[in-house]
Amino acid sequence: GAIVLRLAKSWFRIGSLEILAHSGELDLLRRLLDFIIQEHFPSIAMNDSNRYLEFFSAVVSETANLISLWMSVGFAHGVCNTDNFSLLSITIDYGPFGFMDSYDPDFVPNTSDDERRYKIGNQANVGLFNLSKLLQALKPLLDPRQKQLASQILEGYGEHYYSRFTELFKTKLGLLGENENDNYLIAFLLKVSLLC
Asked: What domain of life does the native source organism fall in (predicted)?
C-alpha cells in the first residue's frame, strides 16, 4: 500500500473564484476573496478600496514569475486549467507533469493531451488565458476605472514573463549586463538544442 499526501500553503485556485462569479454568488465571492487576501497577501491593506486590483496585480506578476521558472528548468505542467492554477502562484497539482530531457517546445507530459494544449511551448499562453479568467471573475467586484487598470495589468503579463524568462536564461549562460544580442543568443541556443 501507499499513501500520497500533497501539502500546500493554500488550495485556493483561480477556479475557486471563477465558479462563484459564474453562479452569481457575489457576496460569497467578496468574502472568500477578502479571506484569501487577509490570509495570504499581508502587504495588501484590507481597508484599501483597490485591494482586489492589487491582488490581481500580484497574482499576474507572480504567475509570470512561476511559469518563467518552469520554463527555465524544462518543467511542463500537464493540466494547466483554472482549477490547477493557484492564486498564490505555486504549483499545487502536478498531475501528469514532466521535465524535458532536451529542449522541445512541443513536449507534452500528459499522454491524454491529444491536442497538445499544454505543451511546454504553450504554458505561458495558458497562464495568460487563466489570468484572463481570473479577471473575468473579479470584474463584478471592480468599478469601471479598476476594470480598465486591471486590463492594463493583464496586458503587461507577456512583457513581465518575457523579461523574467530572459533574466533566468541570461543567468544560466553567465551573461552579464545588457547586450542587444542577448535575446538573439538565447533564441539561437534553444534552436540549436532543438536540432541536437
From this structure: Eukaryota
